[in-house]
Each structure stands twice: as structure tokens, then as C-alpha cells.
Amino acid sequence: MALSVGPVGDAEAREQFAALVEDRLDGLYRTALRLTRNRAAAEDLVQEALLRGWRSFHTFQAGTNARAWLFRILMNAYIDTYRRRGREPEVVDTEAVEDHYLYTRARESADLARQGNPEEIVLAQVMDADVAAALDALPDRFRAPVVLADLEGFSYKEIAEILGIPIGTVMSRLFRGRRQLQQRLWEYAVRAGRRPRAPRRRDARRRSGEGGGGQP
Amino acid sequence: MSHGRCDEVLRLLWQFMDRELDRPTYERVEEHFRRCQPCQDLHEFEVRLREIIRMKCTGEAAPETLRRRLRQLLADL
Predict the structure, then answer these.
(1) Alpha carbon of residue A22 to chain centroid
(2) All structural domains of chain B with their residue ranges
């Protein structure tokens, strides 16, 4: 039985809330950035989520999953602000994108085989790619589970709670999101391969804007 | 058939990487990777790919402006 925060002094509750948020602020901001694709909007969204979090903090059960609780509030704030509750119909997965798309394409590519080790070349090209932009291009319902699972490390069960959907739906959207992301990364790799000189790792001059959703 | 077939293992790969399989299934897949190099190669590729994706998309920390807004918000409560 979890202890409720209960009737504590306002100052004490404020301190507890601040401590709860502090360690998770980076993750909340990163996720907001991937959802809104814009730094200013991401800050506003986090602030809105924190206000809502504070307002419902008295309902939060100490000892329960604080991180999932905060992310659920963030997600609801996002949906309320950006989607106006227009229920998206569940899209049937008719696209024939197989699992492990990138690896399969890499292994099948005669071009890459000529250049060396196909897997290494593709991974180097992904290193060079604007992965955040590829992720940002996914539709909301696929992007959110990919962000929560692959960037923030939440379990299927936690994602189900955060998004308010059944675990089976989490899995189908997550897997479809991963397949679409791999497809986009492959398209990037193909384009990169067509450039006159195949790109080498350019770690020394990584773009400073990476990870940012903000367009100029 | 103690360590599973390739098609089954490939179907379960993401759940394996997500640590979402029950223990017997997880161990069966793990055992399969030890015995099957092609499946192990794919597994390694997917692990490295995910690591690159995570690294490239999580570099940004909450900006100081947001931390300031949070402190202000807490002070105003």
C-alpha cells in the first residue's frame, strides 16, 4: 500500500515536487522537443505540464512511478494543446515494410558490398544523418512510442499508461514507428551514397543544431 | 529445438532487446544467438543502430531558460 503525500505543509509539498521534477527535467524537455519539434514550444509544453503536475500533485501516490506520472501529464498536455482531441482512427498496417529493414537492405545492396562492409557503411551513414529530423517526420502516434521506448527507456507497460492505450497497441505502433524510421534512414543512406564521395565519419565537425527540431 | 528457429527469433528480436520477453523465452532467444551467427549479426546491428539513434536524439539538456522558469513557477506557487 503506497503512502499518499497526504496533508503536508505547502512548503514541504513544493519541495517534494521540485525534487521530483529536478532529475527528470532533461528527459521531459527532450521528449517535448521531439513532440513539438520546436525549442520554444517545447519549453512552453514542459511548463504547462509542470503546472498541471503541481495541481494534481496531491493525487500522486508516493512510491509509485513518478517518472511515468510526469510523462503522462506531459503527453496529455501535448494532446490537449496540439491535437484538440480529434480522435485519430487506428490505421491498418498495410505498408509492406518488413522488420529490420535497414539491415536487410544493407545486406542486399550490391553497391555497398562493393564498397566494403555494408553494415559498417550504413551505420556510419546513420551517424552522419540528421536522425532527429527523420524521427520528427514520423506521425505522432508512431513517434511518441518510439521516443518513449528508444530514447527514454520506458517499458511497454509504462508507455501504455503514459499514452492511455493498451499494451498491444503500444507494441504495434512502436514496431511500425521503428520500421518507418529505418526506412527513412535507409533513404538517407542511399542519398548519401550517391554523393560523389561517400561520406566518412565527420565526428570532428558534428552539426551543432543536431537534436533540435527548430527550423530556421 | 531448444534454442528456437531463426524466423521465431527474428520476430522476437525487438521484444528481446526491449527486455519484454518472459524468462524462458528470453533465454531461448539468447541461446539461439550463441549458436546462430547470422541472427547474432543482425542482433548486433540493431543494438548499435538503436544506440546511435539514442545518442543522436538525446544530446540536448533542458536549457537554462527552462530551469529558470521552473524555479520561478515553484516560487510563485
Answers:
(1) 20
(2) 6-76
pTM value is 0.83
What Å distances lie between residue A70 and A75, A98, A151, B65, CA to CA? 9, 34, 16, 20
For residue A71, the domain's CATH number is 1.10.1740.10
Beta carbons within 10 angstroms of residue A17's beta carbon: 18
Considering the domain architecture, whether residues A107 and A174 belong to the same structural domain is answered as yes
Interface of A with B in 126-155 (CB under 8 A): 126-127, 129, 131-132, 135, 147, 149-151, 155
Is A48 a domain residue? yes
Between the alpha carbon of residue B48 and those of residues A170, A174, A175, B52, the distances in Å are 23, 18, 17, 6
Q: What is the pLDDT of residue A163?
A: 96
Count CB pairs under 8 A between chains A and B.
Answer: 104
Q: C-alpha angle A5/A9/A15, rounded to 5°?
A: 75
Supply B20's cell numbers. Answer: 519484454
The number of C-alpha atoms within 13 Å of A96 and in the hemisphere containing its C-beta is: 0
Nearest to A80 by CA among A49, A43, A47: A49
* ipTM of the complex in this document: 0.92
Separation of alpha carbons A214 and A39, rounded Å: 6
Number of Cβ within a 10 Å radius of residue A149: 26
pLDDT in the model for residue A206: 45
Contact A155 B20 (CB under 8 A): yes
Cell of A33: 522537443
For the stretch A37-60, pLDDT in tens is: 999 999 999 999 999 999 999 888
Domain that holds residue A167: 101-202
